[in-house]
Fold:
Amino acid sequence: QVQLVESGGGLVQAGGSLRLSCAASGRTFSGYTMGWFRQAPGKEREFVARITWSGGYSDHADSVKGRFTISRDIAKNTLYLQMNSLNAEDTAVYYCAAASYLYAYNGPHQYDYWGQGTQVTVSS
Structure:
């Protein structure tokens, strides 16, 4: 059974940085796409970034490009999201997700497994 467990969220001042981690277990993820999404109160779940587990090919949403970086450590079965230059608009619950589909991209419906989420709050 696939499990995704996020950590690393918290309260940070505007301009600061955080690194989110997602520990993945339950199977090998070769051929999977892993993603980060976020959801602010009253808003729909929003794509942040995705990476192919084996090849490491990544994409980032325009709203975070140049500030956030997705990566993964295959040996540790862990997904990361490095977030720099945070601002108040980045405040949300951040979710890790896994898709058993190599070409999954920015649609939440394309992802099969989800973590419980971790809160990121940016104070201005």
Remarks:
- Residues 23 and 78 are 5 Å apart (CA to CA).
- The mean pLDDT is 96.
- DSSP finds no helices and eleven strands in the chain.
- The radius of gyration is 13 Å.
